[in-house]
């Protein structure tokens, strides 16, 4: 019986913390009771426990509640320890096997993208391997990072970047690139159709954190001798699903 009561308190405490963490602003005790379905005495007891542990803050001015300093410090400590090791090799293997395409994870390094992990069943001798770098303006992963830049970051990029023409389809003007990255945001993934190498096309989806900041790009690419551009696009739903699954590990909610 004691164990059941303790379990009930823990579950209710988690419910209250979840509610406060996902609510903008503060809530009154009555609002918390209504939203959780707990009675007033139970709500008061749970709030008192959480306040005593620094997990909930009480504002006497309007008698409202919000997340407490200890919970915030826990969150900061947890995020400081997170890194891209949360992206498993198994993720790349599963995506590659389900699509039959090459897979890569890329991170931004200034005005270039560095590929930190790859799974390549269809090699292409000119394509960048693990640890290699490519430009932002001509790769799907790179253009995705452009799409998630702030207005200030994007303006600074265009002020200094050399938009070199790699193939006949490379986008080399600010106007064309801005239009392209706008379409990337609308569809949820970016496209590079023979823009870095004339025989290679790719698509990329973002891996996001809890604040919708882009951490990395998850890419599918293939030499066109192995699959057509249309076949590549057919794999977009699987790419998006895997990127969403990985993003959830970093706290991104659907």
Account of the 3D structure:
It is a single chain. The chain is of the alpha+beta class and 254 residues long. The chain has 2 domains: 2-79, Arc Repressor Mutant, subunit A, CATH 1.10.10.10; 82-249, GAF domain (Beta-Lactamase). Helices cover 46% and strands 20% of the residues. The chain contains 10 helices and 9 strands. The protein has helices spanning 2-22, 29-36, 40-52, 69-81, 89-99, 140-147, 151-160, 174-187, 229-234, 236-249; strands spanning 27-28, 56-59, 64-67, 102-109, 112-119, 133-135, 190-193, 200-208, 214-223. It has a 6-stranded antiparallel sheet, with helices on both faces. Strands 1-3-2 form a 3-stranded antiparallel sheet. It is elongated. The two termini are 38 Å apart. The model is unreliable at 1-6 (pLDDT under 50).
In short:
The chain has helices at residues 2-22, 29-36, 40-52, 69-81, 89-99, 140-147, 151-160, 174-187, 229-234, 236-249; strands at residues 27-28, 56-59, 64-67, 102-109, 112-119, 133-135, 190-193, 200-208, 214-223. With 254 residues, it is an alpha+beta fold.
């Amino acid at each position: 019986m004691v164990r059941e009561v303790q379990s009930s308190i823990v579950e209710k405490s988690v419910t209250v913390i979840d509610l406060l963490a996902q609510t903008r602003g503060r809530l009154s005790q009555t609002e918390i009771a209504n939203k959780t379905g707990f009675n007033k005495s139970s709500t008061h007891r749970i709030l008192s426990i959480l306040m005593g542990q620094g997990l909930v803050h009480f504002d006497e001015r309007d008698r409202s509640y919000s997340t407490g300093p200890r919970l915030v410090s826990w969150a900061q400590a947890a995020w400081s320890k997170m890194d891209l090791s949360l992206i498993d090799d198994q993720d790349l293997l599963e995506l590659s096997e389900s699509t039959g395409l090459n897979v890569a994870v890329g991170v931004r390094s200034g005005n270039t993208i560095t590929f930190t992990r790859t799974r390549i069943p269809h090699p292409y001798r000119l394509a960048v391997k693990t640890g290699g770098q490519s430009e932002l303006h001509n790769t799907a992963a790179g253009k995705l990072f452009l799409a998630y830049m702030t207005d200030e970051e994007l303006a600074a990029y265009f002020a200094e970047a050399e938009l070199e023409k790699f193939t006949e389809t490379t986008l080399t003007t600010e106007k064309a690139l801005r239009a392209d990255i706008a379409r990337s945001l609308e569809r949820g993934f970016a496209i590079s159709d023979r823009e870095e190498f004339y025989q290679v096309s790719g698509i990329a989806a973002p891996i996001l954190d809890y604040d919708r900041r882009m951490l990395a790009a998850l890419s599918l690419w293939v030499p066109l001798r192995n699959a057509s551009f249309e076949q590549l696009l057919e794999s977009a739903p699987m790419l998006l699903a895997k990127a969403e699954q990985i993003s959830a590990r970093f706290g991104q909610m659907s």
